[in-house]
Amino acid sequence: MRTLIDNWGVVLLMREFARMLGGVGGLKAFMEHERYKLAVAARAALECGADCRRPPNELLGLLFLLARRRGLLREDGRGCRVEVEEPRRPPPHVVEEYFQMVDEVVVDKMCEYVAKPPSEVVPEEEALALYQALMSAPFYVAFRKAIYSRLAKLYRYRTILDVGAGTQDPLDILDVCRLHGAHCELTALEVDPRLCVDLERLASRHGFGVACGWGQAAARYDIAVVQNVLHWATDPLGVLISARLRADRLFVSQGVVEGAAVGFVLVKILRANRPVSWREVEAMTLQSGWRLARRYAKYPNYLAVYR
């Protein structure tokens, strides 16, 4: 009941999202496989010689932390072990590519991560390509569109600043606006020059603006969208302060460590700076001058609107 209360807003969009996954049964299967893959990754790390009490690096520390949080990692006088049952149902078809990525990038390379940091295992260009593929995965696109339509109601705003936009998020926002018959003036803000080049190409075809750095953003927007940006940012507080100077409202959608599973390990490998908790997200947002208007969910995705 507590989990339901803490995440009441997700219920508002879960019907559409669950239907895309194959109903409530498909949603449960997805969650079971997320949990199972986390356990498989933790077990692989132990088999490769990692000590769960003294992890060899930050990535393994995160892996064992999440496994403990989910009740998968057991410790006694004989050491550490992982306990989990294999899911009885296959994962929904729309997330098969995602779990294939988890197997190939996380599980199969685990012995390498025990010996050296992710940057020496997965090259930067490969990490960027994998992240863009993850952002374009059908289940993730459907989830973002659901929260933009049902919770953030972005179609109500004329000018929108998409912070840390990447190459898929602007298209999702524009689709939501078109679905509701709204004309949204969207600006996609990025700080990575490589992504800016791709964004410029997309913008010329789809009709949105691009700001490569905060200095190129306009003075004022009706709303700023911060979608899974804070755990990538080197200065997450600075991101929120800059958004406060340019927008009248803020919508935050941020994956947090509470309730997180193997997906967080994957994005850490793909260069995310650090995991955050929902309390950290809320504290930073309030510290940057925003006032909480409505919180929809605390975990595993923090979802809230600020003014």
Report strand %: 15-25%
Number of helices: 13
**Overall CATH architecture of the largest domain:** 3-Layer(aba) Sandwich
The helix-and-strand class reads alpha/beta
Low-pLDDT runs of 5+ residues are none
Instruction: Describe the sheet with the most strands.
Output: 7 strands, mixed
How would the global form be characterised? globular
**Oligomeric form:** single chain
The first-to-last residue Cα distance is: 29 Å
CATH fold category name of the largest domain: Rossmann fold
The counted number of beta strands is 9
Please give the structural blueprint.
Layout: H1 2-6, H2 8-21, H3 23-47, H4 58-69, E1 73-76, E2 79-82, H5 96-107, H6 110-115, H7 124-135, H8 138-150, E3 159-163, H9 169-179, E4 185-190, H10 193-206, E5 209-212, E6 221-227, H11 236-244, E7 247-255, H12 262-269, H13 278-287, E8 292-297, E9 301-306
Parallel strand pairs: 3-4, 3-6, 4-5, 6-7
Antiparallel strand pairs: 1-2, 7-9, 8-9
Question: Could you please describe the fold and organization of this structure?
Answer:
This protein is α/β, with parallel strands linked by helices and 307 residues long. The protein folds into 2 domains: 2-134, no CATH class; 139-306, Vaccinia Virus protein VP39 (Rossmann fold, 3-Layer(aba) Sandwich). The protein is 49% helix and 17% strand. The strands form 2 sheets. It has a 7-stranded mixed β-sheet, with helices on both faces. The chain has a two-stranded antiparallel ribbon with strand order 1-2. Strand 6 (221-227), helix 11 (236-244) and strand 7 (247-255) form a beta-alpha-beta unit. The longest helix is centred in the first third of the chain and has 25 residues, at 23-47.
